[in-house]
Each structure stands twice: as C-alpha cells, then as structure tokens.
Write a structure and sequence with these properties.
Chain A is α+β, with helices and mostly antiparallel strands. Chain A contains 6 helices and 7 strands. In chain A, the strands form 2 sheets. Chain A has a 3-stranded antiparallel β-sheet with strand order 1-3-2. In chain A, strands 5-4-7 form a 3-stranded mixed β-sheet. Chain A starts with a helix and ends with a helix. Chain A binds a DNA duplex through residues 8, 11-15, 17-18, 33-35, 47-52, 54-56, 59, 74-76.
DNA sequence: GAGCCTATCGCGAATGGTCGCAATAGCCTT
DNA sequence: AAGGCTATTGCGACCATTCGCGATAGGCTC
C-alpha cells in the first residue's frame, strides 16, 4: 500500500502540507519538536501555519507513520515510527538524557500486562529520576 | 521543625500566599490542577495571580511539601507529599485512569537501579497504554 | 520598632499547543 | 472535465504555564 493509498484508506486526504510534514520528520536524524518541523517545512512552503503542523503530526501519528515522546520539559518530540523503539531516562537534577534498550521496557511491560491486563507504551513518556552522577553527589 | 522554620531554613519566606497554596493542596482529597488551587485560594485572597500560584507550587515541591504528576493531558496535577505513593495507568483510547500499587513500581524501579544506576520516580508520569477493555475490543 | 536587603508579588508578555470558523481544495462520482 | 461533499487549511482566540519587571513586603539586624 502506497502512502497515498494508506492515507486515503483512513478517510483522509493527501495534501502537500501533510507530505511535507511527514518528509521533515522522516529526514530528521533525531527527535524533533513541532517548531523545528514547522521551520523546515516553511523553507519550501512558507504559508504553512503552526496549527497545520500540529494537526498533521497528530494525523500521521494516528496513521502510525510518526510517533512522539514526552521528555521532562513541556515540549513534545516527534520521530518516525519505523525506527527501533527505545525508552528514555531523564535526570531531574542535571537534565541528562539516556536511551535504554527495549528489553528493559519489555520486562517492565510484562508485569503490567500480567497483573493489570494493561498494554503499556513505556516509550511514550521518559522515565524521570536521578542519574548515577547526581545520586552519588548528594550536594544537599 | 515547624513549617515556618523549614521554609526559612531554605532561604525562603513564609508569605500568606504560600501558606494558602499549601493549605489548598493539603485539603484537597485528590489530585488538583493549579487552576483549581488558584480558585480556592482566591476565595480568601482574591488578588492572588496565577503565576504566584505556579511559583509557590514549585517552591513547595522543592521543599518536599507537595508533589505533582503528569497524566496524559496537558495539565499538571498536584497533591500533598505525605500520602502513600502510587502510580497511574492511563488508557490512550478511552482515557480511563487506574492507580497501581507502589509494589509494582518498586519492582520496575529495581531493574533501572541495578542496570542503569538510575533512581527512577515512576509515580512522576502516568504510564500510557491501552486498558483491558479497549484492548479486547479492537474496533478497528 | 525602624531600616535594610532581597525574596516574593502582581502584572503583562511570551511560549508550546489546541480549537472554532469561514475559505480552500482533495477526491469521488458522473 | 465538472460538480459536490467534506477534510483540511490559515487565522485568530484561547489554554496552561513560564518569565521579566518594577513594586511590595518578609525577616534579619540593630
């Protein structure tokens, strides 16, 4: 199924803006914010508004083409959905961000599935806490 | 150490606004938003501004008197810090919120401590996923 | 109790993100 | 190729939250 087909199959339309937003996310090496995407899209299509970018990110998310992650600030980070999944540890003291292997998430997910019949998406939000360095140096 | 003493010990001052914000959080039965706190405080102190409420919540958080949690919406929920800790499961389909026992969090936390030397605060953000009901009825 | 230092206040602007609306434009049908 | 239905757009207002500023007021010292 082509991109156009899968977009239309969901009752949506394939607009130029939607294609440009998707391309911008796919081309980005790491996680990008909506504002960064908007700036990149505007370089080729200057009239695009911020709300169009947000709405398209949400639509592409529902289509399974992109996903987003919440680190500990208020900004949402977007990335393509076909990358290997991974979790994030964020230190609330120094702000350090570490990626963790999916195997660790999977082990934690199993317990929630077994005990709560809940299918968690542990990559959706970063796990906030205190990293090794900041824990070893209490500094208080 | 009294409240006044512990506030002053951190180089802070005990203002009327700060006391009212703390009382409002302590009196709330469940998690409350900053806006709900602001409305309650304004009933006795109408001139208080929103930013004062936010700043005081942050100060009280740093003092260890209140804490906050992020569910899957855009608003922060506040509650007193001396309650038993618990985690949250939030269904991204139907929005259902479930509390989970600290023991489950503790088991997950152990792995992050052991493998990453990271002390996680798993109650800080809700775990987003799909609940039993929405998983059993794919509806797609 | 008065004076001083500065934490805190209220205000207004800014930020990241969402929403309602009228105008535009995909895409299906003919 | 034209017409019509409606998803989507750009816009502006709004929401939750933060920040910079000059004014106010805790609380320490004398």
């Amino acid at each position: 199924m082509t991109l156009a087909e899968s977009v239309r199959a969901s009752g949506r339309r394939l607009t130029l803006q939607r294609q440009l937003v998707l391309e911008a996310v796919q081309r980005a090496r790491h996680h990008v914010t909506a504002d960064e995407i908007a700036r990149r899209v505007r370089s080729r299509f200057p009239a695009i508004g911020p709300s169009t970018v947000y709405r398209n990110l949400q639509a592409l998310d529902e289509l399974g083409l992109v996903t987003h992650t919440h680190l500990d600030d208020r900004v949402t980070r977007w990335h393509r959905a076909d990358r290997h999944p991974h979790g994030h540890l964020v230190c609330r003291v120094c702000g350090e961000e570490t990626e963790i292997r999916p195997a660790v998430l999977e082990a934690m997910a199993k317990r929630l599935r077994d005990e709560h019949h809940f299918e968690p998406d542990l990559a959706h939000s970063a796990i906030v806490g205190v990293c090794r360095r900041c824990r070893d140096v209490p500094s208080s």
